[in-house]
Design goal:
By secondary structure, the chain is an alpha+beta fold. It has 12 helices and 16 strands. It has helices at 3-15, 71-90, 121-134, 148-163, 174-181, 194-201, 209-216, 231-247, 251-284, 292-312, 322-346, 348-357; strands spanning 19-20, 34-40, 48-54, 60-64, 96-100, 106-110, 116-117, 182-183, 360-369, 373-374, 381-382, 385-390, 401-404, 411-418, 421-427, 447-451. Strands 9-12-15-14-13-16 form a 6-stranded antiparallel beta barrel. Strand 3 (48-54) and strand 4 (60-64) form a beta hairpin. Helix 2 packs across helix 4 (148-163), helix 3 packs antiparallel against helix 4 (148-163) and helix 6 runs antiparallel to helix 7. The longest helix is centred in the middle third of the chain and has 34 residues, at 251-284. The mean pLDDT is 91.
């Protein structure tokens, strides 16, 4: 935890209300998101018990499994879930745009992509496990299942994998998103309780955040947001209802028992459902960060690519080969670096963390030379100088290149250090002539920020060895067999 994060938590305790740690929203919020509140059976990793799902506060579907250990009932539940999710996904496949790659190849990309919200990371993991459990079921042969079941399984697996990519917004967890924008007066573990976290962010009138969070910890008032249920509810209410369903001797009795179970589970799901839409309203009130559309474009591209593969019948691998796993890991590491930089450039509150750490500074331009030319080479180049004074704890190094926060396409090289004043040589973002475009060079008295990092994502090639240089254990060619070199038995 940084100094500023600790300060925000301390202020939240003092004021009785969560403190904003972000000035803008750093995650895309769809116009019509699909909200899912899943529950699973205790002691079972991927045994669905119930789910409340829908794309509007008053338009929710409640699906249950009266006996989660019954394979037939579980498959029936997943088929019903597919009837809700797959049409939602298909609604984004109709409108596309045609693009041309750098290699000259034409491809299509959907104009929008689906967004599936869950209450917490546990819900994300459960949906991924649920998808992996059915994605290889067959629609032909022995014990066939409807085609929608494995198709939903492949899509849920894709959503789960994409959720692990930093910056992706196709399957966000609400508690993680809220904790990234507000600091509560409780621990990070307690922030995993959606009702308690929202109690700090938006407490009811007359209550402090601590009081609202304490009330939220009562399972009778605020049931857990899943996927696990409260042990007291399991023992006192759920187990007898499932036992009554098991003991039913005819369809009539089973139907009555199932209705009772659905009413009980609906009571567990409804409070979280209302909290999810309340949280979406809070997030929608924040202005969107400047780099959010770029990351959503990446999500649209990933969605379009997988949809095309699925339509062509390309099989989904059971596990990533070694080389693909390494490539995915490197891509995610670089995506995380880009995400952190982009969020800092979008948000002065986040940039303040880097200023305190000495990775960025903000200052006032005290002198500007907008027409300065560098004549050291064969051709003159426009290289203005600015003198900028700062009070931030920034230890500059001669020759290092810094990126301007207000003009990310413009960089400044440190050419002189005079106490609290730096002389920067600017390049980029000024046009291609020897005279700078109007307003492209900072003027005297302008307030500017510079950082040691850049928000531009890395688009170069990953430094991986060629296949012939890759060990056979990681997908390379097998070793050449030489007779007589066998090891003795």
């Amino acid at each position: 935890m940084s100094v500023l994060s600790a300060l925000a938590k301390a202020e939240a305790v003092r004021s009785g209300r969560a403190q904003p740690t972000a000035a803008v929203r750093h995650v895309h919020l769809a116009d019509q998101p699909l909200v899912a509140v899943p529950l699973r059976m205790a002691g079972e990793a991927a045994a669905p018990l119930a789910i409340m799902i829908g794309s509007a506060p008053g338009d929710q579907n409640v699906l249950i499994v009266a006996q989660p250990r019954d394979r037939v009932l579980r498959l029936r539940f997943i088929a019903q879930l597919a009837d809700v999710v797959l049409p939602y996904l298909d609604s984004f496949l109709g409108e596309v745009e045609e693009l041309t790659s750098k290699a000259g190849e034409t491809y299509t990309r959907c104009l929008d992509a689906p967004q599936l919200w869950t209450p917490n990371p546990g819900g994300v993991n459960f949906l991924k496990l649920l998808g992996r459990s059915v994605r290889f079921h067959r629609a032909d042969g022995d014990n066939p299942v409807p085609e929608s079941i494995p198709l939903l399984g492949r899509w849920l697996t894709w959503f789960g994998d994409r959720a692990e990519h930093p910056g992706s917004a196709v399957l966000p967890a609400m508690t993680s998103v809220l904790a990234a924008h507000w600091a509560s007066g409780q621990s990070a573990l307690e922030d995993g309780n959606l009702a308690a976290l929202l109690g700090w962010i938006d407490p009811p009138r007359g209550l402090t955040g601590a009081e609202a969070a304490a009330l939220a910890e009562d399972p009778l008032r605020s049931p857990p947001a899943g996927p696990a249920t409260d042990p007291g509810f399991d023992n006192e209410e759920l187990a007898p209802l499932i036992a009554a369903y098991n003991a039913a001797l005819d369809d009539n009795a089973r139907s009555v028992a199932a209705e009772r179970l659905e009413r009980s589970l609906r009571g567990q799901l409804e409070p979280t459902w209302q909290l999810m839409w309340r949280a979406i309203e809070l997030l929608r009130a924040l202005p969107e960060g400047a780099s959010v559309p770029t990351r959503w474009t990446d999500d649209r591209g990933a969605f379009s690519y997988f949809a095309a593969e699925s339509a062509e019948g390309t099989p989904q691998s059971r596990r990533d080969p070694a080389v693909r796993a390494v490539r995915k890991l490197l891509e995610r590491e670089r995506a995380l670096e880009a995400l952190q930089a982009q969020c800092a450039f979008d948000d002065p509150l986040l940039m303040l963390e880097h200023r305190v750490a000495g990775a960025a500074f903000r200052g006032t331009v005290v002198h500007s030379e907008p027409d300065r030319l560098d004549r050291s080479g064969a051709r003159p180049k426009l290289r203005p100088h600015i003198h900028i004074r700062t009070a931030d704890p920034f230890a500059a190094v001669l020759g290092e290149e810094l990126t301007c926060v207000e003009r990310p396409k413009q960089s400044g090289t440190v050419v002189e250090i005079d106490g609290d004043t730096l002389v920067l040589e600017l390049s980029g973002g000024m046009g291609r002539k020897l005279v700078a475009e109007p307003g492209s060079v900072p003027a005297t008295e302008d307030e500017l920020g510079f950082a040691r990092f850049t928000p531009s994502p890395f688009n170069g090639q990953l430094n991986l060895p060629a296949r012939e240089d890759t060990p056979w254990t990681h997908g390379g060619p097998p070793p050449e067999y030489v007779p007589g070199t066998e090891e003795p038995q």
